[in-house]
Amino acid sequence: MSDQTPNLALPFIMPAQAQKHVTHNEAIELLDMIVQLTLEASNATTPPGLPSEGEAWALASSPTGDWSGHGGHIATWRGGGWLFVTPREGWMAWVKDDAELQVFTGAAWATLAGTGV
Question: What are phi and psi of 48, to 5 degrees?
C-alpha cells in the first residue's frame, strides 16, 4: 500500500504511526491549498516581499530567491514559510492578475476559452 493518495498525493495515516495528527494536519493543509485554487499569478519568478497567509503562485521554470529549485510548482505561504506542491494535469485555478480561469496542461497554465472577464 502506498503512503499517499494517487491523485492529490495526500498522506495516509499508517498503521501504528506515531503523531497521527501531524499527517492529518498535512493532508488538511494540502486540501486547503488545492481545493478551489486561487493563484495570485501564473508563471511567477520572484517571491513577494510580504506574502499573506494562504496566497499562492504558479511558478515559472526558473524562479529565484526562496522559490529557487521549485520551478513548475505551486508555492503558497503557510505558517510563516513556503509550501510547494507539484500541479497535476487538469487542475484549474482562478488567476487574479489575469482575471481568468486557467487549467494546468501538464506542462503550463493555459486560459480556458471564454473565461476572461
Answer: -70, 155
